[in-house]
Amino acid sequence: MNDLAIADAAGLEADIDRAVAALKRLQRSDGHWVFELEADATIPSEYVLLRHYLGEPADPELERKIGVYLRRIQGVHGGWPLFHGGAFDISASVKAYFCLKMIGDDPDAPHMARARAAILARGGAAEANVFTRILLAQFGELSWRHVPTMPVELILLPRWFPIHLSRMSYWARTVIVPLLVLAALRRRARNPRGVRIAELFATSPVKKDRAPTHRHRGWAVFFNGLDVVLKAVEPFWPKAMRQRAIERCRAFVTERLNGEDGLGAIYPAMANSVMMFDALGYPEDHPDRAIARRSLEKLLVIREHEAYCQPCVSPVWDTALAAHAMLEAGGDEAVASARRGLDWLTPLQELEVRGDWAERRPEVRPGGWAFQYRNAHYPDLDDTAVVVMAMDRSRREGRAGESFDPAISRAVEWTVGLQSRNGGWAAFDADNVDHYLNNIPFADHGALLDPPTSDVSARCISMLAQLGDAPENPPMRAAIDFLEHEQMADGSWFGRWGVNYIYGTWSVLCALNAAGFDGTRPSVRKAANWLISIQNEDGGWGEDCTSYKLDYRGHEPAPSNASQTAWALLGLMAAGEVDHPAVARGIAWLQRTQDESGLWQQDAYVGGGFPRVFYLRYHGYPKFFPLWALARYRNLRRANDRRVAYGM
Fold first, then answer.
1. H-run or E-run covering 65
2. Rounded distance, CA 48 to CA 66, Å?
3. Most buried residue among 67, 70, 492, 505 by CB atoms closer than 10 A?
4. Using N-to-C axis directions, what is the helix angle for 315-329 and 621-638, rounded to 10°?
5. What is the helix, strand, coil percentage profile of the chain, to 5?
6. What is the C-alpha separation between 200 and 64, in angstroms, rounded?
7. What is the tens place of the pLDDT at every residue in 318-367?
8. What span, in angstroms and rounded, lies between the C-alpha atoms of 636 and 516?
9. In this structure, what are the phi and psi dihedrals at residue 609, rounded to the nearest 5 degrees?
């Protein structure tokens, strides 16, 4: 990193002002921010296939635009990746090919031929993951025998049973419950165009015994054997019991339908709910089916030339983080903009519904925020902590008075109540740690659970510490011990909800700083040294989604991007390294790469959906994180005290 330009202090203020103005322009009229949330080819492909499953009237223009999008993101390997520039993924590729053929692409067209060859070279469509094989079974492309059995009677089992829905994550519950009905009824897709994809199946026999590398061999053998037994006895389930189970599933979905924000406010659960209502014979105009169907339309992003479907939306998360950036930037306009965002957030706090989290913590009162506009049964700890820290900063700096006090108090009560026994926090539940469940054949994605993670735990520690909780207090002590136990040998931390070790390390360094620890603490020093050691030659930082591989052996260089550069800088500044040359080089990189609009461009996927399976491109991240880093650098360089005063 020789001879790199050091941060341009003279131009720094102007760069911050341009970024503030740009972010302010993107704020909605009611005060909130929401940015696109893009996944891979899977969700837009599934959306098109859903329409054909239901036999809905054709929408040629929408299909044309989704086709343009899918062709644009096809990889050089011929298939479709899980993130920008990523490796071939067979499940995404099968769905994208099926979608494109469904909307009229010629199978002999060059892009289709390349995709087909790539799929067949990797064993064909039968090698796709469980959710893809379910879709193929629904369209008659694959026998249900090649899909792991999840009997609908599962929902009738008692809470103490080792395989129970309450032991699974929120996203698994909301996806699985309507899927249990679909698997029991096995309604065939209408498929009015009669499109088939037999050409994607290799001639070799279908592999029934799948053992992904996340599995424990003993448990995998046991559950695969159980699957054989379940398939054998399934025809003999009492019909009355099956009908009672289906009714219980229907009631579960209906209670959590969540209006036009949808079941669980995530695409797979929402789509499954629509198909469940259809399979149960609900007409299109039935209120429950109709509102479930409308919820999916709200996820579409339709541009002039192309379109895609988002996996969910992120307004609470985007608004809270943008408010933090604006508060860090300071100045009357930025602070007023942040306050408008926080005022918009206040009534979205869930104070009434005792969601699924209450199954394990029935004594705790609700008080969290969800990720989406509404998701009353499933607020999350990460969003809640970030919202509270922004509200607290606003009131501490004298601009909000006591208006946020009730919301903050209730949120803290809920957060403390959901601390897990190991000291950490998960995203949605407490003690969701029955890891043996990731060995059931249905869980080939390895993400059936929601255990405590370093990044969410760090956010909760940051919140409590910012509010004055001392590290000696037992809950804080347990949480800090959890974090330091989770530190990797190289000094980094795993980032469950952001990519990956840069995200986790930034999160934890903020928490340790908020708790009062500086660079003299070994864990802080080691983490700071790691961040400095992985800085790219151009002054930025980068890490791609391949870092989630199970045999991680250290950071592998990836091109610099604005979001991860900002995280690294914020982490180093939390560690007390604002004067380190690496920080100046990183700030200079952000200044050089800011565009004329005042923002930063970024194609990199730096959000984690499910490690190794599903990733996210947060379009808002390069709009507020770099501003946050630039403003913090300016503020610390101005101050006599170089310690970061807030939890983030």
1. helix 60-72
2. 8
3. 505
4. 30
5. 55, 5, 40
6. 23
7. 999 999 999 999 999 999 999 999 999 999 999 999 999 999 999 999 99
8. 17
9. -90, -70
Catalytic residue among 15, 89, 380, 382: 382
Domains of the chain: 9-37+312-638 (1.50.10.20), 40-309 (1.50.10.20)
- Calculate ∠ Cα 436-439-182, nearest 5°: 115
CA atoms of 424 and 429, how far apart (whole Å): 11
Name the strands in the sheet holding 607-610, side by side, starting at the edge strand that comes first in the sequence.
37-38, 614-618, 607-610
Q: Is the dihedral of CA 328, 333, 339, 345 positive or negative?
A: negative
The whole-model pTM stands at 0.94
Residue 2: other Cβ atoms inside 10 A: 4
Q: Render pLDDT for 23-77 as a digit per residue (tens, 0 to 9).
A: 999 999 999 999 999 999 999 999 999 999 999 999 999 999 999 999 999 999 9
User: Are the C-beta atoms of residues 340 and 322 closer than 8 Å to each other?
Assistant: no
Cross-strand pairs, 617:
38
Report the alpha-carbon distance of residue 333 to residue 149 in Å, rounded: 57
Token output for 95: 């769905």
Q: How many other β-carbons are positioned within 10 Å of the β-carbon of residue 551?
A: 5
Q: What angle do CA 32, 291, 265 make, to 5 degrees?
A: 50
380 noted as active-site residue: no
Task: Tell me if 410 sits within 8 A of 296, measured CB to CB.
Answer: no
Rounded Cα–Cα distance for residues 348 and 66 (Å): 33
Q: How far is it, in rounded angstroms, from Cα 580 to Cα 21? A: 29
Q: What pLDDT score does 223 carry?
A: 62
What does the block give as tokens for 86? 């990523």
Please write the tens of the pLDDT for every residue from 107-129.
999 999 999 999 999 999 999 99
